[in-house]
Amino acid sequence: MELMEYLSTHFLNKTQLLSAAQVSDEELRNYQESGLVPTCSYKLNLNLDCHSFFGEHLAHGTIEYFAKGYVEWLQHVHAASDKNAVYRDFAIRYRHTLENLKKLGFECAHPNVNELLDSHIDKEWQHFLNGTYGLCTQSGLPEDIAAKELAILIINALTLEPMASDLDKEKLMQAVDLLDSVSAQFAPHERERSSRHRLIDEVRRKYLV
User: Fold this and answer.
1) What pLDDT score does 60 carry?
2) Domain that holds residue 55
3) First-to-last CA distance in the chain?
4) How many distinct structural domains can be found in the chain?
5) What predicted TM-score, i.e. pTM, was given to this entire model?
6) What is the pLDDT of residue 16?
């Protein structure tokens, strides 16, 4: 199945995650319940009907898939002496990424990345814990999340009105490339409805060809 191939290629199942991070299933569950580590981005509920020489065998099971970047995050949480500082680390990494991107010319006047940044990061943290960004970014980590959100804000602002200048078109191209660099490919059944299709594929088709 194409979905299984996508998940196996781009994600880690729970067993693989725990092995790579050297953390137990119980520890992962405790961290998730404490709001420190994201839940899975995909969950497959499987009903297996196996036929062989020995006859038919029925089995049921669940497989959870996590972003590969969560190995680093899980190790970070596991090693942290102050669990209350985990959110602060997320916010610092998010802000640092925005600052670096702004130095590179990715300017945006949207309040979410300016005067409302504190409340915006609070909301981003909840999406992070829900596994949303493990699904739609390559790593699921704060750096990719911040870059993705900034790129989307810039793209939306520039495509709201007709291109005013070649400079606007250049800024749009840079924002699309940034989004492309951090955005996931998305599962086959999600691609037509994904931000990648809408803000990368369609924007390139409309503005950048």
Assistant:
1) 79
2) 2-207
3) 34
4) 1
5) 0.91
6) 98
Alpha-carbon distance values, 65 to 13, 56, 195, 204 (Å)? 4, 28, 20, 31
Nearest residue to 131 (alpha-carbon basis) of 21, 10, 40, 32: 40
Task: With CA atoms as reference, report the closest residue to 184 among 76, 69, 104, 98.
Answer: 69
pLDDT band at residue 209 using 50, 70 and 90 as cut-offs: low
CA 35 vs CA 73, 77, 93, 114, 171: distances in Å: 13, 11, 18, 26, 37
The string of DSSP letters for 94-135 reads HHHHHHHHHHTT-----GGGTTTHHHHHHHHHHHHHTTHHHH
Q: Which two tokens stand for residue 20?
A: 């790579």
The number of helices, as runs of H, and strands, as runs of E, in the chain is 11, 3
